[in-house]
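In the laboratory, one determines a bound structure by crystallizing the protein with its ligand and collecting diffraction data. In a computational setting the workflow is compressed into a single prediction: the sequence and the ligand go in, and a structural description comes out. We illustrate the idea with zinc ion.
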Amino acid sequence: MKIDRDFVSGNIEVLNINGDVVTVERELRDTQEGYDWFYWAFRVTGAAGKTVTFQFPHKNRVGYWGAAVSTDLYSWEWTGGRKLWTAEDGTHYESFSYTFGPEEQEVYFAHSMVYTPDRFEGFCAKNGLKIEELCLSNKGRSVPMVRVGAGEKRILLSSRHHCCESTGTYVMESVLQSLIDAPLEGYEIVCVPFVDYDGVVDGDQGKHRDPHDHNRDYPLDGSPSIYNTCAAIRKFADAHPLVCAFDFHSPKHCGDINDKVHIPYSYESEAPRLDRFSEIFQSKITPDAIAYDRTNNWPAGLGWNKTTNATFIRYVINRPSHPFSFTLETPYFGEADGSVVVNRNTMYAFGQCFAAALRDFLKETER
Ligand SMILES: [Zn+2]
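The predicted complex, in structure-token form:
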């Protein structure tokens, strides 16, 4: 059995292999000291026919439904069942087990359902979208962006300001699909799916990256960004007035508010239009989608949501066009009791609900 991370989005440290029990841990890499984060993704080869348990020597590593599992880095399912194991000191940590099929030579496991640039390229090919280059990343990679529709009015969709936050990209993809299938008349949709593109490719955590992460790279005092993509987005937003900007994120690992879809208010003054959108959004949620209750929206200034944080949303909101803009947080797993399960289908349905709400909201505000 071989375990590696030498693929797009890979992240793992193998601590020990003891028969069919493997101890692994995520790599923090350049995460600022004092922050624990939880993203991992690894590949197992040569385990066909075996049942293997993978355990982590730390809490907050495995979600409610076990690991996300895939044989092609594209289609992800849950292994089912987070399990606990007891360390020598009596502490309970998390693990999952997997029985490899007799023909399963190469299997990927991850903290959550990974969304790679390959998947986005496939999405674009299927929809006949031309991928443009936003800029070169700090590591010299071509950062993709796409435009859909034509018009004077402009909506910006983005995800992966924090590179591990893949549920945001699944939802964003579904929103984009809806806007391709039924275009918004008079609008151009501009999409930057991987803001921390290097982090997505390399499999970093991205959150609390040292010295600051991509969603803290929009200084309110106007000083330059340190990441090329953030600088390019600022330049774009300055040159092209936006009507809306939506930034799709995932929250922390799980528990409490992190199990629920929520929208943090960037400023209290944004409450009137955000409240109205949230009301419409909640009314559009279908039974096949991830649940959304607007009372879970997160107040400006509460806890981590400091109004002085130099986020992308605060940057665009402060442009002269004062676009309707917010961050949408989509959980990695759902509710522990199983009443909400995040997977490819529920994320897709959820994105369709978001797009339906957006259509109604724009119609209403244009009246
Ligand atoms: Zn985030």
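The first strand starts at residue 2 and ends at 4. Keep in mind that any predicted model is a hypothesis to be tested, not a measurement.
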